[in-house]
Structure formats: C-alpha cells, structure tokens
Automatic annotation (TrEMBL):
SMART domains: HATPase_c, HisKA. This is histidine kinase. InterPro entries: HATPase_C_sf, HATPase_dom, His_kinase_dom, HisK_dim/P_dom, HisK_dim/P_sf, Sig_transdc_His_kin-like_C. It holds the Pfam family HisKA.
Length: 500
C-alpha cells in the first residue's frame, strides 16, 4: 500500500500535473497560432480582391481616357462615337454600359440604354465631374433595367484649354467582380463598403453579420476610397482537436519516459541501499558471532599451543618436529582468523590519536621491503618530506597497509614492481599502493568488499572487508582500480589533522 501511494504521488507529479499545465499551455498556444493563421488568411484574401478592384478601376480609367481622346475630336458628330462605345462594351464583359454626355450632362451617344430614363445631369457623381473636371466614381450601386447592379464611373473630356467639353460614363458590373470572387474563394464571406461605410457588394453574408464588426479584417483600396472587409474563418474544431491530441500524445510519451526513468533510478537507489543494508547486516552478524565466540575459541587454542610446546620439547626427533611445526602453523592461522573476526566485530576498539602517516610507513618499510625481496619484487616509495598527520589507530592503520601490500605481492606471479605513494592534498591525504600484477576482472571489482568473497584458494574473504571497516572508522575512503594483466591501484584517502 505504501509503495502504491509512493508510485501514485510520483505519477501525479511527473505525468498528470505536467500534462495538465503543458496541455493547457500548448493548447492555448495552438489556439493563438490558429487565430493568427486564420487572420492572415483573411488578410491575404482581402489583399487579392483589393488588387482585383484596383486593377479593374485602373484599367477602366485608362480605357476611358483613351476613349476621351477620340470623343474630343467627335463632339460635333457624337453619333460617330456610338459604334466605338458599343464595340468596347461588347468586348469587355465588365461594362454594363458606356455613354457620352455633353458638358452639361445630357446624353449624346451610348450603348443599349439599360439605365432608366433619367437626366444624367441630375446624378450626383455626374455633377461632381462637371464641378471638379476630374474622374469620379459613384459611391452607391445602381440597378439597370436588366437588374444588373452597377457602379458608375465618369471621366471628363477636356480640350486644350482644359475646358470641359463632354463626359464619358462607364457602368461597372458589380456581378462580374462578384463572380470573379466566387471562383477564387467561393466560401469566403466578404463585402465592399464605400467611404460612408455603406455596402457596395456582398458575398455569402447577411445584414446581421455585416453589422457585427467582430472577427472581420478590413483593407483599404488604393484607387478608391472604399474598404474590403473579409470575415475571419471559423475555427476548424476537428483540425484543432487533432493538433491538441498530437501535443498531448507527445507530452504523455515524454512524461512517461521521464516517469519510467525516475522509477528506474529510484529502484536502483533502493536496490543499492538494500544491498548495503544487507552487507551491514552481514557484518553485524559476523561481529556478533565474533564477540560471542572469539574468546571461547582462543582459550582452548592457548591450552593446545601450550601442550604442543611441551610435546615438542619431549619428542625431539626431526619427523616429530615437522609435525609439531605444521600443527603450530595451523594454530597460528586459526588465531589470525579469530583476530580478524574480532576486528570485524569491533573495528573502533582501539583509541585513535593523531598519527604521522609517514612515520608509520617508515616503521613498516623494512617489513615490506623484506617481503618484496623474498618475492623478487621491486618496491618504490614516493613520500613527501613534511609530516602528514591523520587521526587513526596506529596499529589498525599498520594492519591495513600490511594487508594491502600482502595482496599486491600475491597478485604478482614472478617479478614486478610495487609503489607506495603518499600525496598531501588541501584537506586530505591520499595513500596509493600500486602493483603491476595480474589485476582484477571488472565483474569482480564490486564484489571484493563483500564479506567472505575471495579469489584465493586459502583466503577467508575478510581481509579487504576489515580494511574498509577500519578506514571507514577513520572517516576515510578506500577505492580499488584494476585492469586485468596491467595491475591494481588501491587508493586510501584520509582527512588530515592541521596544526593549530
């Protein structure tokens, strides 16, 4: 139940909460990006139609200016202009009609009269042309007899003295531009308004939408004082749903990978902790066993050794002495193992003092050199000149050094070299015992500090465990680095005692 709660809170922290926050963040970002995209799409459509209208008006003005040159020369016989106006009107489907008026606005010639019978001079944009002598476009749409919706555009016919001699009028078909728009974007909602914001052309919109100015893009025309308004398309819920689902799916994958990774790391930490606790438990069991049985074993051993001594004095034959020596050797070995058990059980039994580690090494140097010579091994010493003080139990420190050098000797099969190297660092000292022996396989490195693990035929598997237990009691660290057929380095770091 406890593990389930732990997993639930971890899952809630790593997966659920990030999913909610990141999903909301990226969801809002997707909506914002979608709004921006739809607005740009509407602006793009408006720009296309703006260019269409500007081009339409510009081409019409150019056409009327060309016609005005011909009209200027035929004002005395305006009937000659009718065939030309009819031909232009028939050749260009954008025109609903073309007319030639005199300077007062009276009809002189034109195409098929689709306009209602009216006096051109009374039409507001014609009056403006007469007054301004400039090109004027009507600001409202008109209905012809055939129900065509048109916008009137008038250009003045001027003489050399810039006097108004006539007016050319073109009816521009709104339905033509509307059809062009429907071909390009049939579903787009848009409308065109004049300078007074009154609709001139509408496509796919009703009056209610026109008066709702929200979600519309407005773009002014260049050739006219008009604006094109394009409705921003509604959100595509299926597209948005797919995009948000993809983001949520990616977030789920990432958060679950992270969750599994953290679970794996926590499991490794827990396994390592349990393994360490098991090792501690083993040592505690061994220590308890040592504390309860060591003295009981040593007492009879002392008696046995005494009687063996007496027997060796009584039976002096060479063959008997050989047997006594073997018995004494094995008794000493038993006594050594019992001593190791005692140290394993109580590694901090001795009183710790400030010890000069260099002095300790120099005291052990003759023993180590003698053992090295016996094994045909060269021993090198690299020690600093100044004292290096550490807080430890001197005898236990000697035991660690002797144990490690003994292992180094045993790892060298014929001849080789051992280095005893001490370095003084800022807060600690580092003692290294380096050999060029056969080395330790990589898979065995993690096992060498486990109780009773040994690669030797006669080993107890307690030597390195005792060394580690002793160094740990000195607040130090012991680490072993080894490569098969290259050698082994044992590194001990101990905090130094600074002179006050």
């Amino acid at each position: 139940m406890k593990r389930f709660k732990g997993n639930f809170y971890l899952y809630l922290t790593i997966v659920i909460i990030p999913l909610l926050f990141l999903g909301l963040y990226f969801g809002l970002d997707i909506l914002k990006e979608n709004d921006f995209k739809r607005e740009n799409q509407a602006k793009w459509i408006a720009s296309i139609y703006k260019e269409q209208w500007d081009q339409f008006i510009s081409e019409t003005v150019t056409s009327l200016e060309i016609l005005s040159i011909t009209a200027r020369e035929n004002l005395d016989s305006p009937k000659k202009m009718e065939p030309l106006l009819v031909q232009v009107n028939q050749n260009d489907p954008r025109y609903g009609g073309l007319y030639l008026l005199d300077s007062k606005g009276n009809l002189m010639a034109g195409t098929v009269p689709l306009r209602t019978e009216e006096n051109f001079s009374e039409i507001p944009f014609i009056k403006e042309v007469i007054k301004a002598k400039d090109i004027i476009i009507s600001d409202h749409k008109e209905v012809l007899r055939n129900n065509q919706l048109v916008i009137g555009l008038a250009t003045p016919v001027l003489d050399e003295k810039n006097e108004l001699k006539g007016i050319l009028v073109a009816d521009l078909r709104i339905d033509y531009m509307k059809n062009v728009m429907k071909v390009l974007t049939p579903d787009t909602k848009l409308y065109v308004v004049n300078g007074g914001d009154k609709p001139i052309l509408e496509m796919n919109v009703d009056r209610n939408e026109i008066y709702k100015q929200k979600d519309w893009v407005t773009l002014p025309m260049n050739q006219l004082p008009w604006n094109i308004k394009v409705k921003i398309a509604d959100r595509d819920l299926s597209e948005l749903g797919l995009a948000i689902s993809q983001i949520i799916f990616i977030i789920l994958i990432i958060t679950h990978v992270l969750y599994l990774l953290i679970e794996y790391i926590m499991l490794r930490i827990k396994t390592k902790k349990e393994r360490k606790e098991n090792e501690i438990h083993k040592l505690e069991l061994v220590g308890s066993l040592a504390a309860s049985t060591a003295h009981e074993i040593r007492n009879p051993l002392t008696g046995v050794k005494g009687f063996i001594q007496l027997l060796s004095e009584k039976y002096t034959k060479e063959e008997d002495q050989y047997y006594f020596n073997v018995i004494n050797s094995e008794l000493n070995r038993i006594n050594q193992i019992v001593g190791e058990f005692l140290i394993l059980g109580k590694p901090t039994a001795q009183l710790m003092n400030n010890v000069n580690i260099i002095e300790t090494l120099n005291e052990l140097k003759p023993l180590i050199v003698s053992e090295a010579n016996a094994h045909n091994i060269e021993c090198k010493w690299l020690l600093p000149d100044q004292p290096v003080m550490v807080k430890c139990a001197k005898d236990q420190m000697k035991q660690v050094i002797l144990n490690l050098t003994k292992n180094a000797f045993e790892s060298i099969e014929s001849c080789g070299t051992i280095q005893v190297k001490l370095q003084l660092l800022e807060q600690e000292c580092k003692l290294e015992i380096i050999d060029n022996g056969k080395g330790i396989p990589e898979e065995d490195i993690e096992k060498i500090f486990q109780p009773f693990y040994t690669s030797k035929a006669t080993g107890t598997g307690l030597g390195l465990v005792i060394c580690k237990r002793i160094i740990d009691s000195f607040d130090g660290k012991i680490q072993i680095y080894s490569t098969v057929s290259v050698g082994t380095t044992v590194e001990i770091t101990l905090p130094i005692v600074k002179n006050k």
